[in-house]
Amino acid sequence: MSTPIILALLALGVVLVAGSILMRVFSAGKYEVKTSDLVFLVIPLVVVALATGKIKGFDIFGVKVSEIWVEAAQTKIENQVAANTVQDAVEVLTSASKGSDLAQLLERRIEALEFRLGYRGYDGEAISNYFDKLVGSSYLRVIVVNEDDGQLFGLYNAANLNGYLRASDRGFEAFQQLLSEKDRETLAKMPGFVGADQALSTSSTKREALERMEKLRRDVLPVIDNGGFIGTVERTKLTASLILAVTDKLERQ
Predict the structure, then answer these.
(1) Are 136 and 59 members of one domain?
(2) Domain range enclosing 124
(3) Tens of pLDDT along 128-153?
(4) I need a surface site. Which of 60, 206, 224, 245 has the fewest CB within 10 A?
(5) The pTM is what?
(6) Domain CATH number, residue 195
């Protein structure tokens, strides 16, 4: 999101707040809109804008809020990394071939399904079936694709990938073939793909994470350690952590 757009949205938020106050005044209180509700609409924009340096900051009653935001944005993301429950797709499909009950997999609340490049044992129809059931469970959030040595190749949003593959009659068969043939170029062009080169580490700062999300237009990014997938980080959690950190700092001052 560009600086002019952010500033325009912030200005709109201010106008809405001012307008609600005027409406309450001229309607003798009959028109009731809580200004706090309108303010909270623009808080996430303010947080991202300050954290990424698009707005330099401001002072409130002598407190330099800009410095507090900078300090908070430079903290590491390690506490915001969600260690997703990962299930190996090979094990899932092998269990399916043996008649394993899908309900058992749903009970595990699988959040990430892992595929391996170069593996030739995947079946497109089975992948389609399990995508349908697991994505529908609301627990499955991301599809992880690893190299055959366990290093992360890339990550997809599960719902987006499922929808994309279902749009084609042979989408899942094609996906299976791309994996077995290690067609990295085509896999990387699919919607919602985030490559290992765009992943974060636990030592990444919140500012770096938010800037990368803004650049890639993604709300979730993978986090790696020594090249291996360890979890994801979300924009909403980063934003909430910044608000809490700044609030805590202001209270102490």
Answers:
(1) no
(2) 80-235
(3) 877 877 777 667 888 999 998 999 99
(4) 60
(5) 0.70
(6) 3.10.580.10
Q: Indicate if 147 and 225 belong to the same structural domain.
A: yes
pLDDT in tens, 216-229: 989 999 999 999 99
